[in-house]
Amino acid sequence: MDKNITIRDVARAAGVSPGTASRALNNSPLVAEATRQAVLEAARRLNYQPNIMARRLSLGKTLTIAILAPFFTRPAFVARLRGIVQALQDTSYDLLIHNIDNPESRAQVFEQMLRTRRVDGAIIISLPMDATTRETIVQSETPIVLIDIPTSQDLPVSQVVVDDVQGGRQATEHLIALGHRRIAFLGDKADPHFAFTSSKHRYQGYQQALQNAGIPLETRYYRECDIARQAARLATLDLLQESPRPTAIFAASDTQAMGVLEAAREMHLRVPQDLSVIGYDDLDVSEHIQLSTVHQQLVTSGVLGARLLLRHLDDPTTACTREQLHTHVVARSTTAPPGQIS
After folding, report:
1. Is the pLDDT of residue 197 over 50?
2. 285 and 304 within one domain
3. What is the pLDDT of residues 112-149, one digit of tens each?
4. Cβ contact 121:142 at 8 Å
5. Which regions of 126-254 does DSSP assign to beta strands (E)?
6. Residues 70, 318: Cα–Cα separation, whole Å
7. Together in a domain, 79 and 171
8. Are 87 and 152 within one domain?
9. Do 200 and 161 touch, CB atoms closer than 8 A?
């Protein structure tokens, strides 16, 4: 049985000292590039597997980043996580993912992760804060980055934010420009645990666009439901009973927009001839089904959030920054000028 290969074996094979080999494997700028390549080649040839625990002890770090977010099964959160993984894949950091599904778990995880230094840094995604968690963030010595938490923009941490009001306005303006006047909005049902704001802000943008165009706001063209296709389908079936029925529906997420499309098929309405539909998020599936939608930079937000955190981990004196991501409409085949319907 082969013996365990150590850093000394790698150093001997590369013709350098163990200290130089260690610095080369840790990408130290003090090591010449030619020496680094010689050490890396020796490590590959010997199939050297570093002792992760020993490395963490020597660096005085956990080499772990916590990801805190609600509802990791939702496509938008998954897309942001893809961006984080993409940005961290060439680093030594492991991810510790926490799915926060109620205020009690939020308080517990924040206490464990941010006060006890169990991780080197944390990225918090789309998670509304109460007074206690806000105070924990302010007092924490752990570097933290927030992604998509517009109600916490006053906190002294780096953030990546999206203007959902702008996105809601753009979606509605797209429908108005096509000639629609009876435009319905399908938003999120209030969560019993957290005060999420994305749907509310998109509805504000919807209202602004109608007002700017001189179109009266009609509450009968408003429905809300859970972020699920079946729930959106049922809400849309009810919405389409209004007389006169809307000629277009703006859904607060692509998932809900897919439920709207199912309801339209069930009622034998042609999309977009009889009913235009626009979603929000621009998920991968939206291109496949040719859904018109609002593109928000989900993957990019994850990449930027991770890069901001890496800056703070490399240099704790780095000033906090705020990255604003913009939205735009992606017009596909589910929106068109309104047909002549009663």
Report:
1. yes
2. no
3. 776 667 888 999 998 888 888 888 888 888 899 999 98
4. yes
5. 144-147, 158-162, 183-188, 222-225, 248-251
6. 28
7. no
8. yes
9. no
Q: How does pLDDT run across 8-21, given as a tens digit for each residue?
A: 889 999 999 887 88
- Domain residues for the domain of 280 are 164-296
Which class for 161: exposed (0-12), middle (13-18), buried (19 or more C-beta within 10 A)?
A: middle
- Report, in angstroms and rounded to the nearest whole number, the Rg of the chain calculated over CA atoms: 25
Whether omega for the bond prior to residue 272 falls within 30 degrees of 0, making it cis, is yes
pLDDT band at 23 (very low <50, low <70, confident <90, very high): confident
- Based on the fold, state whether residues 124 and 179 are members of the same structural domain: no
Bridge partner residues of 64 (DSSP): 94
pTM, to two decimals: 0.81
Q: Are residues 15 and 119 in the same domain?
A: no
The residue to which tokens 């309104």 are assigned:
338
Count of structural domains within the chain: 3
For 225-276, the pLDDT digits (tens) are: 998 999 999 999 999 999 999 999 999 999 999 999 999 999 999 999 999 9
The enclosing domain of 21 has a CATH number of 1.10.260.40
Residue 194 within any structural domain of the chain: yes
Q: Is 165 left (phi over 0), alpha (psi -120 to 50) or beta?
A: alpha
* DSSP helix, strand, coil percent of the chain (3-state; round to 5): 45, 15, 40
Q: What's the first-to-final CA gap in the chain, in angstroms? A: 81
Q: 124-133 in b/e burial notation, b at 16+ Cβ within 10 A?
A: bbbbbbeeeb
